[in-house]
Amino acid sequence: MKLAIISDSHDNIPNTEKFLSWAKSNNIGMIIHCGDLAAPAMLKKVVAPAFSGPIHLIHGNVSDRELLKKVCSEISNVTLHGDEGEVEVEGLKIAFCYFPEKAKELAESKKYDLVFYGHTHKPWIEKIGSVVLANPGTLSGMFSKATFAVFNTEDKNLELKILENI
Fold this sequence. Notes:
Number of strands: 11
Number of domains: 1
Largest sheet: 6 strands, mixed
Strand order of the largest sheet: 4-3-2-1-10-11
Number of helices: 4
CATH topology: Purple Acid Phosphatase, chain A, domain 2
């Protein structure tokens, strides 16, 4: 299965739509959003209608927590995990959060195979022991080029993608 990891989309509709079109044509099975979706209406009107697979997301630092919780409860394929999330996919344990300090702590716990985070808007991949720690960057393109990450559970390949190049 291919997972797409995004973060810091900040209501950028054209970038989000371009990413979702790419995700559909590239057989993405799940989306993990590492925070700062921004307006919950983006989820309801742009993301969920264009992607039928599971969507897992967390709050960022510009999240309307109550409204996002309400909107997520109305969309069957969306799971809001709060400030940090955890999923297991094909035997791999994946954690995701918003802040890099918390992500490093999760990676150092050695309880996960992969840990993803957002906030910095800078794409990054590193290993802490056997744990892959990665930031997909910013889908909005705010402060740096718009990027996202794709993880393939079959070959365990994690790749950062620049949105303008897809």
